[in-house]
């Protein structure tokens, strides 16, 4: 049984100070302004469309949800944070934490079909697939650096499906995924009644290279498995 003794406290404080120093170092060495961008999976080849979509969903932390206005039926989009798992767990399941005070949530309650779009341009650093290790002497690899977000090699995916509340038995899973990537969510006000939602992907549109959009079935998206181990990124 671990007891919190003064010496243990000292060790914890030292570790915390070390982690803080590492973060400062990380910021100084790379373009990363988000200390979450530390561990990632290698970028898949652009022609492996289901895998690329899985990679994009996992490496990004937010996207744009497109809904239909509950009153007028007109399009309405908005920024929404998502997570498919911790940095070590790329499950592909898209979890969200939504408040009924948000117009997007109200639209979803009225009409659950929606799309969710993510762009690789959001990813500040990633591992270069041509190098097996990310040595601190290598420059950060940024596939979208120098590209316009609309240019095809800067990958993006629009996922189509319906958003549904996560059933009680699955809520710990959703919470674990979201709070690992969005720790501030744990402190969001209780009176905003945030609820876990999941996007059930029926199909998706992916652009990751020249030659037009690829269409991927939801079943193929969920069946794809990100390859390799999570690695340290800078
Ligand atoms: C939602 O999408 C599904 C298929 O993706 C479709 O069968 C269904 O009719 C849609 N629902 C509405 C209300 O449009």
UniProtKB/TrEMBL annotation:
Q: What is the superkingdom listed in this entry's lineage?
A: Eukaryota
Ranges of compositional bias, category Low complexity: 125-137
Q: Which residues form the CREG-like beta-barrel domain?
A: 44-222
A GO cellular component annotation here is: cytoplasm
Where does the secretion signal sit in this chain? Answer: 1-21
Q: Where does the chain cross the membrane? A: none
- The segment annotated Disordered runs over 123-145
Which UniProt keyword terms apply here? Signal
Keyword flag RNA-binding? no
Does the UniProt entry include the keyword Ribonucleoprotein?
A: no
**Per its UniProt record, what Gene3D superfamilies does this chain match?**
Electron Transport, Fmn-binding Protein, Chain A (2.30.110.10)
The family database entries (PANTHER family) matched by this protein are listed as:
CELLULAR REPRESSOR OF E1A-STIMULATED GENES, ISOFORM A, CREG1 PROTEIN
Name of the protein in question: CREG-like beta-barrel domain-containing protein
Query: Which species does the entry assign this protein to?
Result: Astrephomene gubernaculifera
Q: What is the lineage of its organism?
A: Eukaryota, Viridiplantae, Chlorophyta, core chlorophytes, Chlorophyceae
């Amino acid at each position: 049984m671990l007891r919190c003794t003064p010496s243990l406290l000292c060790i914890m404080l030292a570790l915390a100070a070390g982690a803080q120093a590492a973060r400062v170092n990380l910021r100084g060495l790379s373009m990363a302004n988000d200390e979450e961008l530390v561990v990632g999976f290698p970028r898949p080849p652009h022609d492996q469309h289901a895998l690329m979509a899985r990679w994009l969903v996992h490496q990004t932390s937010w996207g744009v949800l497109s809904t239909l206005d509950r009153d007028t039926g007109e399009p309405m989009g908005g920024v929404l944070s998502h997570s498919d798992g911790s940095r070590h767990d790329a499950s592909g399941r898209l979890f969200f934490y939504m408040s009924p005070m948000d117009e997007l949530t109200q639209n979803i309650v009225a009409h659950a079909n929606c799309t969710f779009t993510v762009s690789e341009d959001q990813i500040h650093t990633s591992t270069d697939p041509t190098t097996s290790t990310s040595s601190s002497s290598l420059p950060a690899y940024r596939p979208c650096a120098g590209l316009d977000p609309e240019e095809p090699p800067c990958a993006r995916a629009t996922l189509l499906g319906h958003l549904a509340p996560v059933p009680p038995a699955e809520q710990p899973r959703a919470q674990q995924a979201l709070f690992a990537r969005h720790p501030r969510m744990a402190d969001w006000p209780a009176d905003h009644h945030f609820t876990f939602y999941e996007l059930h992907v029926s199909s998706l549109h992916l652009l990751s290279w020249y030659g037009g959009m690829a269409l991927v079935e939801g079943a193929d998206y969920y069946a794809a498995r990100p390859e390799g181990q999570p690695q340290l990124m800078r």
